[in-house]
Amino acid sequence: MGSYSSNLDDILEEDMHHWYTKFMRESPSGLITLFELKTMLDMNGMTEEASSYVDQVFFTFDMDGDGYLDFVEYIAAISLLLKGEVNQKLKWYFKLFDQDGNGKIDKDELETIFKAIQDITRSYEIPPETIVTLIYEKIDVKGEGELTLEEFISGAKEHPDIMDMLTRMMDLTHVLEIIVKGQRRNAVN
Prior knowledge:
- This protein is mostly helical.
- It contains eleven helices and four strands, in the order αβααβααβααβαααα.
């Protein structure tokens, strides 16, 4: 497939025409469907939580809600993940965690996402229940068992350990590398 930048920080500095060529080579229709994304990520054998997480990631980046990622949404997603400001990333995390869309994150939603992330990354260092308990002990100051966007952002910023944990858990660099380098594992089989 040719030579690709090994440093993801340099990705956005590449010529836009080059980006577009990569995108169109992977998705000749000019659109990426959820199924195509899961194929790129080799989702076979993943748990239901992991599959649901990828669904949620896809739909948060599908800004117009048409069921496809077009080139603009693709570039916006990569830009947010690589170059986004802390507030932008925290807002995206919140939207991702708020699975029912009610404007609040409850413990079950957060635990489901963290379980899914661990299934995808195969990293099980800290049990999701422990992570959720820590987050709610520090951030849910009212003890309501759910967090609003404002509570989530201010709490994450006030607690560097929480922010660091979220940043590490939500690191999608490996996913971006697969997409950017065009490594479709299934194509090798």
